[in-house]
Structures are given as C-alpha cells and as structure tokens.
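Fresh eyes needed here. Kindly weigh in on this sequence plus structure tokens:
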Amino acid sequence: MRRPCEGSVDGLMLLDKALGSSSNQALQQLRRLFSRVKAGHGGTLDPLATGMLPIALGDATKFLHGLLDADKTYEASLNLGQSSSTGDAEGVLSDWSDPKPFLHRLSSVLERFKGPQDQTPPMYAALKHEGKALYAWAREGIEVPRKPRAIVIHQLDILDMVQYDASSGERTCLRVRVHCSKGTYIRSLAHDIGQALGCGAYLAGLRRTAVAHFKEDQMLSLDQLEPLDQAARNAFLLPTDALLLDLNRLDLDDDSARRLIQGQRLSSEAHGAQGLVGPVRLYRSSGGLLGTGSIDERGVLAAQRLVAQKSI
C-alpha cells in the first residue's frame, strides 16, 4: 500500500470555468495552482459554455465517476428566429424568421420537452462514429447517422425573454433553466425547441449552475484562486467524501479497516449494516475516509476503491 506524499492534496474544486476555455485547458490551469497534482473533471463543458466544472484532485479522482452520471442544471440563452448549422452561435445561420407570431405557443411547446424522451445528438459533438468524432465528420461536410439517446428533462422554466436591436433588426432572446439527466445536449434542445415553435432557434449562451447536489454559490474561478497562497487554495477544496454523500455510511474499527485494506471480506452485520445491500462509503475509527465498499446479498462487505493509506 503506497504512502501519500507529505503535503499531498486531495479534494474537490468546483471551478467556475471561463468563456472560451476548453475543459481540459481549465483542468491544466487548475493543476498548475496545485503543484501539478493528479486531477480529473466530472463532465465536459464546451468552450462557449461557462460555469460548474467539478475537478477532483489526488485521491478524489477515484470517486469522480458518479458525477458523470449525475443530473445537471443549466441556464441557456436561445436566439429565436434562426437555426444554426452547429446548433450554436458559431455555425452558419439560416434566413431570419420573425418569432413573434409563434410566441403565444411558447409555454405549450416547452411543456412538450419535459420528461423522458429520445434526443438525437448534434453533429458537432465528441461522440464517435466509426472511430472518429462526429464533429470531425461534420467539418468534412459529411452528416452521419446518430442514434437517439434516452434522456430526461426534469425541469424547463422560462427565466426571461428580451427583444433587442441587432444590426439586422430586432431580435428575441429567450433564457431558460434546464434541469436534465446526463447525456442531454442543450444545443440539440435549443434547435428542437425552435423547430417545434416554427421559427428556428440556436444556442447563444450556456452556463452550468449545478451538478448533482453541488450548487452555483460553491464555485470559484481561476481568477479568484490565482492570487491566493497554497494554504488558502487548499482551504477552498471540498473534502473527498463530498463525492460520496449519496452512499450509506459505514464506520469500521481499526482492526476491521486493516483487514479490509489487506483484501479480506467482512460481515456487514457485525459492523452495524444489517439489511444494507450495494455500495457504501467507509470510514476509519478516526473519522477519516477509508474509501468505498460493496455489500452483497449475503451481507458480505468487500472493498471497492480505497484512498491511499499511511499505514495498514
């Protein structure tokens, strides 16, 4: 069992990603502020999107997978009256169609997009077809078949709608809040809403405000972190087990923890987990996180992912 390096950093940073930065660029910039520690992020944000990018550091990377499956919340700005070849402001726009005659149907149209549904991913996506990303095919002018994917829109609310003057005339921007399942493409949702309205729409702006139970007021930007010393930055890290709060907690005495680390299996009932089945988060008698385990139907506890231990 390896020993963590003295002064090692473990935890979760909820980064407020800046406009124009890719998720990997943001991750590498954060790593630079934390001595190049091992890191991973919990769900890609496009360069044109801002907001919550959960980044796990050190041992927390072992438990990041749950965020990839978690629900997300976004605030999206949709420009009505035109569609886009890419679904967003970077694409080629269609001819203008005044959305005003269609707006009386807006509430009923949005209602149709709530709940379970199948969504076809956009061509400008990182999903692969025959080993090549969809966006690579699209840049070659080739449209390939995409299999619809099951998603759920839990919430779709109007935040506001603004008419503004552009160089080509008056335009309408609709802002909505979307609470959705993993795998939802907001660019596709914007396009589909425009098609359903009859006037077209494209995504003009996107901000992710929540991932799982993590909220917007917990985020920090690179600009906020940059001037801080290392101790102050570390103080803003959420503990590793913030990624595991949806799991039942099981506390082990020192002997049981040692046996589990050595690969032995334990009786869960002997540790106060009678009737529990499935994944659990494990703690040592000191209160420190040990990792995660799994209890089978027979009540047998086995280790799954463990944090680095100073000793066994």
User: Anything to note?
Assistant: The first strand starts at residue 11 and ends at 17. The chain has eight helices and 15 strands. The longest helix spans residues 186-197. The radius of gyration is 23 Å.
